Amino acid sequence: MSLMVLGTASHVGKSTVVAGLCRALKNRGITNAPFKSQNMSLNSWVTEDGAEIGIAQAVQAKAAKVEPTAEMNPVLLKPRGDASSQIVLLGRPYRDVHIKDYYSETDTLLEEALKAFRNLEERYGTVVVEGAGGAAEVNLYDRDIANIRLARALRLPIILVADIERGGVFAQAYGTVSLLPEDIRPLVAGIIVNKFRGDPDLFSSGVGLLEKLCGVPVLGILPYADLAIASEDSLSIGDKQAGGSPIRIAVIRLPRISNFTDFELLERHASVSYVTPGKPLSGYDCIIIPGTKNTIEDLKVLRSSGMADEICRMRAAGVPVIGICGGFQMLGQRLTDAGYESGEAEEADGLGLLDVRTTFSAYKKTTRQVRNRAADAPPILSRFGEVEGYEIHMGETENRGCTPAFGNDGAVSADGLVFGTYLHGLFANPQATDGLLSYLAGKKGLPYTGAAGEGDPYDRLATLLEAHLDMDAIAALSRQDGTASFKTAGGPP
C-alpha cells in the first residue's frame, strides 16, 4: 500500500520528509515512487521525455532511485503574478487560467491525477504521496485535490508533518487533526515533529501531550538539518542567508523569479544574496540574473528601480554578469512579444550586454534535457568543461554574432565576462560552480577548495530519518493492504 504525507501548513518540510522516506524505504528494499497531485511552484524540472514537473518530485524520484516522470506531478501551477497561473497538465502546457476560474477545472484535474497515481502504484507498488500547503484549509475542502479530495479518493494512511521551529506545534497538530473531515480524520496514522533544534529529550513530555491530544502516535522528532536538497518554492527564499565567504554573488530577486534552485550549490560555497531591485550592487564579485515567469514585466522592474543601469555599471567595472533563461533574454538587445508571454503585444529594450534578440511568437514552450560542452572562452567558461541541465522557456533567441556559450545555446561576450544561457541546473554541475568560484577567488587572491565530493544527500537524509523516526512503523504502514482506521483512542472529537 502507499502512504500520504500531509502538513499542518506550507513550508513545514513535507517535501524533504517525502524525499527522505523515498530513500529510506528504497534502502529497506521497498520499491517506491513519489507523487503530488497538484503543485504550485515556479521551480520546475524537465524529464527525459521533455515533460515539466515540480522540482520537488524530481528530487524525490532521485531519492527513490527512479526516473522522474510526468505522472509524479500531473498538475503543476505556475503563477504569473497577476492572479493567473499556467496549468501544466501531465508535463505539457494546458492553459492559462485566472484563479477564480481554476476551480471549475478541479474535477477534471483530479480525475487525471487519480489515473496518474494508479499508474504509478501499478508500476512501483508503493507511492509516497505529498499533500500541498496545510491539510486543514476548511474553506477549500470541496475543491482541494491535493489534500482532502485526494485522501478521500485514495484512503491511504496519513502521516502529518508539523513544524516546531516556528512555534505553536500543539495548535498546529491538534487544530489540523480536529478540523479534518470526519471520514478523513481516522486515516491519520501518526505525526512527525519536524525542524527541532536542541536536545529532543527535552520534548519528551510534549510527545506525550501531542499523542493524548491528537489520539495518534508521534512517529519521531526530526532535527533541523542543512542538506543539499533543492527547495520547492519561493517561500524558501525568505529563509536564505548569505554565508560568510568573502566571495560575494548577487542573484537578482526578480518579482517572478523561477528556478532559484539553480544557485543552491553556489550558496554552499560562496556568500549568495538575493538582491531586490533597487538595492545597491556595489561590493559584489558577480551578478546573476535568474529565470522568470515573465521576462518583459520583470525587465520593466529592473528599469524602473534603477537596477538595470546598476547592472550595466557593474559590467563596465569588470564584474561578471551571468543570465539564466529569462535573465539571458534580458541581457540581449531587444525583446518582442506578440502577446504570448505577457498576454499583450509589446516590445522592450534589453540590457544590451549581448548581441542577441528574443521573440515570443507562439504559445509554445521548449522543455528538454541538455548536455553540452562550454565554450573555450576565458576567463570563466573555459573552466567549465561538459555540463548538463534542462531548458524550460518560451521564446526564441537569435544570436547575432556572439560566440555561443554551450554548443548552440546562449552567448558569451568577447571578453568572456558576460554570458547567458537557457541551461537551468548549470551551477548544479560541480565543475561549473568550481569554474566560476575559482575565477572569482583568484581575482581576490584567495584559495578555493572546490564543490565536488559532497556525497549523496539523500542517503544522509535517510540516515537521519532512520535515527529519529519509527521507520519500522512507517515501513509497516507502506505494506498495509486495506483501508482501516489508524486512529488510537483518546483523539480529538
Automatic annotation (TrEMBL):
PROSITE patterns: GATASE_COBBQ (PS51274). Transmembrane segments: none annotated. Residues 3-229 form the CobQ/CobB/MinD/ParA nucleotide binding domain. Catalyzes amidations at positions B, D, E, and G on adenosylcobyrinic A,C-diamide. NH(2) groups are provided by glutamine, and one molecule of ATP is hydrogenolyzed for each amidation. It comes from Methanofollis liminatans DSM 4140. Keywords: Cobalamin biosynthesis, Glutamine amidotransferase. The active site is at C325 (nucleophile), H424. NCBIfam families: cobQ (TIGR00313), PRK00784.1 (NF001989). It holds the Pfam family CbiA. CDD domains: CobQ_N, GATase1_CobQ. It comes from the Archaea. This is Probable cobyric acid synthase. The lineage of its organism: Archaea, Methanobacteriati, Methanobacteriota, Stenosarchaea group, Methanomicrobia. The keyword Cytoplasm does not apply. PANTHER family: COBYRIC ACID SYNTHASE, DETHIOBIOTIN SYNTHETASE. One of its GO terms (biological process) is cobalamin biosynthetic process. SUPFAM superfamilies: Class I glutamine amidotransferase-like, P-loop containing nucleoside triphosphate hydrolases. Residues 248-431 form the CobB/CobQ-like glutamine amidotransferase domain. Pathway: Cofactor biosynthesis; adenosylcobalamin biosynthesis. GO terms for molecular function: ABC-type vitamin B12 transporter activity; catalytic activity. Belongs to the CobB/CobQ family. CobQ subfamily.
